[in-house]
Amino acid sequence: MNKMIILLAALLVCAISGIQAQTSDAEADAIVNLLGIQKKEAIATLVHVTGNDSVAFWKIYDEYQVSNKANAKQRIGLYERTALAYSNLTPTIADSLASVYFKNRFDQEKTLETYYNKIKVATDAVVAFEFYQAEVYMLTQIRAAIMQQIPTYGELVNASHKKK
Hints:
- By secondary structure, the protein is an all-alpha fold.
- It has one domain.
- The chain is built from six helices and no strands.
- It is elongated.
């Protein structure tokens, strides 16, 4: 699990660290696909399903991964936009970024709820709850790893004041 988080953080830092070059759609797809494979391995250790429930769960989980791909790509782009905005952050840009982060998180939660319900119907509420917990855990770990790699705007401002 830690290997996946480190890999994710490294990929996303590489994707957003180039100030001059933006992440292409193909690069974002590659990042999301690689993360999807890593996440699926981690989910397999966190969600316990057997027999028919296993078949149903993994079919729905694969659908979830496809459904969530646009949201994941948007978040990668949002991290990149945030890093690029640091050089000219205005109240308008900051507010716009915050609004997109809120929408992205809301969309993620709606997708989780939709697939929780699908898994609950196909298996049971315990398996669906395991899915929900595992996904929230993974998303939290991934976001924390990324945020540890990217300084906050306030950290940059403080660092620039110390240099003067």
